[in-house]
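Form P-L/3: holo structure prediction, ligand alpha-D-glucopyranose.
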Amino acid sequence: MEETFIYRNPNAAIEDRIKDLLSRMTLQEKLAQMTQIERTVASPSAIKDLAIGSVLNAGGSAPCDKAVSSDWADMIDNFQKLALESRLGIPIIYGLDAVHGNNNVYGATIFPHNVNLGATRDADLAYRIGAATALEVRASGAHYTFAPCVAVCRDPRWGRCYECYSEATEIVRKMTSIVSGLQGDPPKGHPNGYPFLKGRKNVIACAKHFVGDGGTHKGINEGNTISSYEDLERIHMAPYLDCISQGVCTVMASYSSWNGRQLHADRFLLTEILKDKLGFKGFVISDWEGIDRLCKPQGSDFRFCILAAVKAGVDMVMVPFKYEKYLEDLTYLVESKEIPLSRIDDAVERILRVKFVAGLFEHPYTDRSLLDKVGCKLHRDLAREAVRKSLVLLKNGKDPRYPFLPLDRKAKKVLVAGIHADNLGYQCGGWTITWDGLGGRITVGTTILDAIKEVVGDNTQVIYEEFPSHETLAREDIDFAIVAAGEAPYAEFTGDNSVLNIPLNGADVISAVADRIPTLVILVSGRPLVLEPWLLDKMDALVAAFLPGSEGEGVTDVLFGDFEFEGLLPVTWFKSVNQLPMTAGQNSYDPLFPLGYGLKTNKEKHVIS
Ligand code: GLC
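OUTPUT (holo model):
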């Protein structure tokens, strides 16, 4: 009778399965489980012979151009087949950044970014978006998303402000409901901190970046957060308690430092606080080349940085390319007893716990029945709802007695202008198809211009000019103009910006149009931008759309009055960058528009001035 290994028995207790499997693993197999590599180096020998624990793709690293969900599923299932052929047949976890829908996949639903969701304050919406995203991630064959980012963005000069729900900890805490949407609701009595995953329609989530990534000095990406421990805990750590109580499976260490202590090497925060005090029992993953970043400041050698990170409490290292060197050094460190085997066993137990909880041993392959969920109407309608609820009305009429919005869909002639009016990539922002985003028709979706054309009457002429000509601006027969301006996409350090003016000549277009025609401005940006008084005065109305994603109709639903504005600023709208950092609750708080600001239209008095 062939011995039935306990770890292969789905009815055995998870902790028994972990213990049984761990007892069968060689040191090499254990260290390989602590290794996450990029798809482009995930060779058959790495996966099958070394038994690497996890594979990921960088933003923009795809199986082919315009890769649809089935292309991804084919690639990932091929990796998985190799993993199951390894000596112990431990399945891989495949991870990717699905941070506003499965933004890697061509044709997937692109939800608004986190800053938009923060403007809704709607925890149930976040939950539903998490559930929809989980379906579209599993349909691609991936098991794991590096989301949600629960950074509390205290300075909009940071290039990742749009990945944050808010500057206010309480709003971020509320939006962590997305974890249960992604992973499923843990049952009553579920042990705090124990990872949870409901089933094949759910994904392993990742609360990131632990801790204080949104509080760095001047918002410098991967910079230094200078604060007392009490403030670090009160402002930046609180959302992790909510994630841990929902059974979040993984936590990603931050590139940033706390009072000069790099998080990737900080045992006090990664182990004594996160694991011991908060009771987190999933695994801690490094950030991309987090070990290399550890070495950079002091120029320390790679082996020393591995030692520092693993001893601090990093369980899985997102290497992602030089995994042979990583494994060689890690092996040396364990064999020389610089890293105790107990630390390795703890890390591997945590990784195996997540794999067993996720049911990967029972269901290692893609459930292809989910393919029709990708970009489906239900999800696009959900994204459209999120867009509607996230728009913030900042100005409505030069004279409050005469609101400018809602717009008249039966107007005779409408001018649409600005480079964000018909640019799907711009309205999606970073982390869309590529790492730092692109302009143009990068995926399936509806631009703001598409939506305007759909919503206006048959007798309405829509004139579209990115940069309107003098002739157009000289016309006397245009009822109103809509100018969409803002930022081009960016990600991480490419978005760090200490000036925060409206880029790409947006202010010039706004000014030229608003001088001649009653004008609504839609600002498409990852964060507040400087609005000079002279420019704001010229606008008849102003809407902050932030980064709405693929469903542009959510914008016109509200502009033309089918729905009321609900959005409230999730971040302070400063007057000048010289005021920064400036967040609600601090002394000398003198914003242009405060945290929580947001107007509603008043239909009774709707007259176009
Ligand atoms: C990046 C980001 C992190 C992301 C990871 C994998 O550098 O810091 O948020 O999940 O690498 O793409």
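COMMENT: Confidence is low (pLDDT under 50) at residues 604-609.
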